Amino acid sequence: MSVLARTEEILSLARSRTPGDRDRLLVAVVDLCDVADSAQIMSAPAVQDLLNSIFMSLVVEAERDIRRRLAEKLAHVDWAPAALINVLALDDIEIARPIIASSPLLDDHDLVRLLIEATVEHQIEVARRPRLPATVVAAILQQGEPTVLTALAGNVQTALSGDDMAMLVKAARRVAALRSPLIRRPELTEDLALQLYVWVGQALRQAITTRFRLDVAALEAVLGQAVAEAHAGVPGSDPTADAIVWQQDDEREEMERRLISKLVAAGQLRPGYLLRALREGKLSLFAGALATLGDFPPEMVRRAMDGEQPEQLALACAAVGIDRSAFPTILELVRDLNGSRPGGGAEGARRALAAFGPFAPDLAALAFRRTMTPRSV
Question: What residue ranges do the domains of the chain occupy?
Answer without folding.
Answer: 1-106, 119-243, 270-372
